Amino acid sequence: MHSTPTDNRIPTLAHILIVEDEPKLAALVGDYLRAGGYDASWVADGREAIPAIKAKLPDLVLLDLMLPGRDGLDICRELRSFSDVPVIMLTARVEEIDRLLGLELGADDYICKPFSPREVVARVKTILRRVRHSGEQPGNPALRIDEATHSAAFHGVPLELTPVEFRLLKTLAANPGRVFSRDRLLDNLYLDHRVVTDRTVDSHIKNLRRKLEQAAPGQDPIRSIYGVGYKLEIE
Ligand code: CA
């Protein structure tokens, strides 16, 4: 289940990270996800969750509430400080869900145990479809991002992007108009933990801008916010 990510690795299947301390349950859910066409990996200890999320950049996290090492609430809070990855919380008690909803943790859905693995796969599918559609920005057909093929087009012109530029554009496009700090963008840029600087972000942004400009002369949808970071604005 463990793989060593490199910068060149472009995942073709959506990757689901399972954070669950019951090995049999995790294995069962993993099997169903793989059968459903997803890539899945698993960590059992709460302390491993954040490092695994940063390393693997999963497309969705299934997060158990009660975990050894660190509980799911705490993990979800920290996770939201650097990532918008969809989270489905798994909880053993239905009455906990009301409490969790009240905490506004930023989880996208909640599933009560015991659950059927089929149900989990169905929820994963629904959420990923929703996320994917919002990334495509139906209101802004100028920019098309296709996660399945890792390709993008601007005003109908295909963009030839490096994996890093693709991730950068995907991150910015997921929330148009929202300002991303360089730190935040850096978190999403590399699958490994290389040491990079703000300048690295600036130089990737510069290249991305040049490619967007080449695709649609006169258009410059990436705005620099002085001292803060960048945002994407498409007319
Ligand atoms: Ca548990």
Write the layout of secondary structure elements.
Layout: E1 15-19, H1 23-35, E2 39-43, H2 49-56, E3 60-64, H3 72-80, E4 87-91, H4 94-103, E5 109-112, H5 117-136, E6 143-146, E7 151-154, E8 157-159, H6 163-174, E9 180-181, H7 182-189, H8 198-215, E10 222-225, E11 229-232
The protein binds calcium ion.
Residues 21-22, 64, 66-67 line the site of calcium ion (CA).
Description:
The chain is of the alpha/beta class and 235 residues long. The chain has two domains: 3-136, 3-Layer(aba) Sandwich (Rossmann fold), CATH 3.40.50; 143-232, Winged helix-like DNA-binding domain superfamily/Winged helix DNA-binding domain (Arc Repressor Mutant, subunit A, Orthogonal Bundle), CATH 1.10.10. The chain contains eight helices and eleven strands. The protein has helices at 23-35, 49-56, 72-80, 94-103, 117-136, 163-174, 182-189, 198-215, and strands spanning 15-19, 39-43, 60-64, 87-91, 109-112, 143-146, 151-154, 157-159, 180-181, 222-225, 229-232. The strands form three sheets. Strands 2-1-3-4-5 form a five-stranded parallel sheet, sandwiched between helices. Calcium ion binds at residues 21-22, 64, 66-67.
Output the structural class: alpha/beta
By CATH, the superfamily of the largest domain comes out as Response regulator
Question: Quick check: average pLDDT?
Answer: 83
Low-confidence parts, pLDDT < 50 over ≥5 residues?
A: 1-11
Strand content: 15-25%
Count of separate DSSP helical elements: 8
Task: Give a count of the beta strands, DSSP E runs of length 2 or more.
Answer: 11
So what's the CATH class of the largest domain?
A: Alpha Beta
Number of domains: 2
Alpha-carbon Rg, integer: 18 Å
SSE sequence, one letter per element: EHEHEHEHEHEEEHEHHEE
- CATH architecture assignment of the largest domain: 3-Layer(aba) Sandwich
- Placed side by side, the strands forming the largest sheet appear as 2-1-3-4-5
Give the termini distance in whole angstroms.
43 Å
